[in-house]
Amino acid sequence: MRFSPAGDSAVFVATGDKISNELSNMNRSIIDALRKSEFRGLREYISSYTGFMVCYDPMATSYDEVVGLIKSIGKVRQAEEEYTPGGIILPVAYGGEYGPDLNAVAEINGLTPGEVANIHSEGEYIVHMLGFTPGFPYLGGMDTRISTPRKLKPSLRIEAGSVGIAEDQTGIYPVESPGGWQIIGRTPLILFDPERKPEFLMKPGMRIRFKAVDNYEFWLICEMITHGEYQLSTF
User: Fold this and answer.
1) Is 174 helix (H, G, I), strand (E, B) or coil?
2) Of 34, 42, 117, 195, which residue has the fewest beta carbons closer than 10 angstroms?
3) Pair 105, 15 in one domain
4) What is the pLDDT of residue 79?
């Protein structure tokens, strides 16, 4: 682990240099142990692909004390191999108005649109981190057969719930925003709701599966969500 100050009230810890489930698992395991430690002055924890940041109250503790705590926890947690809290299943309508770039992804990879949708929905993913916009999940574990570069010209408007591909990653836009990912489908589920507790549907470490649905099923789920009748599927 490599430590560096992030301003006067945070420590950034670099734990690797590549994206992997093993590294993400270890980072989140250390963060969980920090949360449970009840160490005075610790405020917030932010996980990324290859490290994490710990924010603290400089009036209650010091940079050196926080680094010492992380080192002591890290020696134990680096030996742990798995950290897999429960998973959820997200319905997705692939192609058409919901996935305008599905055909392009298929053409780039020498596949049919149906094959791309099948490959994408057959996988199991892990949320490495949230970022870019509130609750945007960066998912690891996508099959490289559908790996596709980002768009050369980003779209100015991508609908909330849009499922995209960028290189070897897949992710979901929680809110309407510009973006450069290739959009292959959309989920009717609400990933970010500031009036809901917790606000985010996902969290780092959560496992994700996708389930292909048709346009009618998509509409039906939207109606159920509106009336508070939809039950999230888990595994």
Assistant:
1) coil
2) 195
3) no
4) 47
pLDDT, one tens digit per residue, over 84-141 is 556 999 999 999 999 999 999 999 999 999 999 999 999 999 999 999 999 999 999 9
| Angstrom distance (rounded) from CA 120 to CA 144 | 10
Q: Residue 16's domain is classified under what CATH number? A: 3.30.1360.40
Judge contact between 174 and 159, C-beta under 8 A.
no
Cα separation, 100 vs 94, in Å, equals 9
Identity at 152, one-letter amino acid code: L
Nearest of 225, 21, 51, 233 to residue 139 by alpha carbon: 21
Strands (E), 27-150: 42-47, 51-56, 87-94, 124-130, 137-140
Beta 177-179 vs 207-212: how paired, if at all?
unpaired
pTM listed for this prediction: 0.84
In a shared domain, residues 193 and 130: yes
Return d(Cα 111, Cα 97) in angstroms, integer: 20
CA distances from 22 to 35, 52, 132, 192, 230 (A): 20, 14, 23, 27, 33
Residue 192 C-alpha from the chain's centroid? 12
Rounded Cα gap, residues 103 and 19, in angstroms: 27
The domain tally of the chain equals 2
